[in-house]
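Hello support,

Our group uses your service weekly, and this is the first time we've seen a run hang past the timeout. The protein is Transglycosylase. I'm not sure whether the cause is the sequence or the server load. Input pasted verbatim:
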Amino acid sequence: MGIVSWIILGLLAGVIAKVLLPGRDPGGLIGTTAIGVAGAFVGGWISAQFFDRPVQKQFFDLGTWGAAIGGSFVLLVVYRLLFGNSRN
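Update from on-call engineer: The timeout came from a worker crash unrelated to the input. Re-ran successfully.
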């Protein structure tokens, strides 16, 4: 997968993570999508390093999507814990 595919995957994973964890985010839509892109990269790295499941070259691989959504979800939770009270 190329970088553009990872960005698209990250954006979609960020939206899915946001649906799974509703509420107000300190960064708004742009912050949430940036977290989604970063989460896709982090999730892919964790999948390859710790679960011995390298990221596949196909865009529609279920394991790749699971890693991206999981990474986005974790980063969104951490982001809310660190910066959640900054927007009242």
